[in-house]
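Marked as duplicate of an earlier ticket. Keeping the data here for the record.
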Amino acid sequence: MGILHEEYRERYRLLGLRIAYYRKCKGYTQEQFAERIGKSWSFISQVEANNGAIVKGISLDTLFCISDVLEVPVSKFLEEL
């Protein structure tokens, strides 16, 4: 997925914060997490919107993979977005 539509930027930012929260709860660094889901560190950094980085959208396949690796239901990532 490419750069997201401006109207969804805040939703993706919140999604990225939730991913970061659950990743940290599992004790994974961004590098470890990226390896486990088959993505690059820079991809994770953009998804989690670290340090004002460009917020990046993700596919449902990627979200499902993240959910599986973190052992968190997909619904937890999408609540009240």
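See parent ticket for discussion. The chain has a mean pLDDT of 89.
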